[in-house]
Amino acid sequence: MAMNINEIHALMDGLPIGAWVAISTDQRRVLSYGEDALQVFAEAKKQGEKVPFIGRVPDPNELMFF
Amino acid sequence: MRRITYPYSKIGIDNQARHRPMADVILIASNGESVRFEALADTGADFCLFPLNVAKLLGLRLDQLETATTTGVGNASNLTYCDDLTIDLGDGIIFTTRVGFTWGMDRAGFGLLGQQGFFENYNVEFRHRDRIFAIESA
What we know:
Oligomer: heterodimer
Structural class of chain A: alpha+beta
Strand content of chain B: over 45%
Helix content of chain B: under 10%
Number of helices of chain A: 2
Largest interface: A-B, 29 and 40 residues
Largest sheet of chain B: 7 strands, mixed
Shape of chain B: globular
Structural class of chain B: mainly beta
Order of helices and strands of chain B: EEEEEEHEEEEHEE
Number of strands of chain A: 3
Distance between the termini of chain A: 28 Å
Number of domains of chain A: 1
CATH topology of chain B: Cathepsin D, subunit A, domain 1
Radius of gyration of chain A: 12 Å
Number of domains of chain B: 1
Number of helices of chain B: 2
CATH superfamily of chain B: Acid Proteases
Number of strands of chain B: 12
Helix content of chain A: 25-40%
Distance between the termini of chain B: 6 Å
């Protein structure tokens, strides 16, 4: 089942821009956040999440081009 | 036929908001490790590309991966590590393809679903005015 990215981003509100964040699969909880992606991932796994969602808090003022 | 419809992600507020065709994907490495991540459906990307940190989360050893150089806006040459991964979008849409990992994507914090593996295998409908897009298997 696909997760709703906007609901995931809503959970990131108030967290530091650019921080790595782990979100629970049920899209209800921030499991961990910080500057180190590996540490954030490890802390989420410690909480029993087998496949946590990992992302970064987006910067609303940043324009992106690829 | 399988079809998944997603709302565009919305970053920012009001008329300053950016709307992007983002999907959540599960990346599965050959070692069995997996991580859930967000990825932009990007017709301009030649292949699927993710932040280098994702390779580390998956436990991939960079010194054992093939390397290539990739080019994007602002960066003429990015060292990119490559491996074959399975990408699962859910609802039966799943494929295995060569994926690149580069530091250039770490700032973005999401990946790109590109031509190879993704657009070549699925019909993708963008309805930008409605802020939705759909991925459809044959």
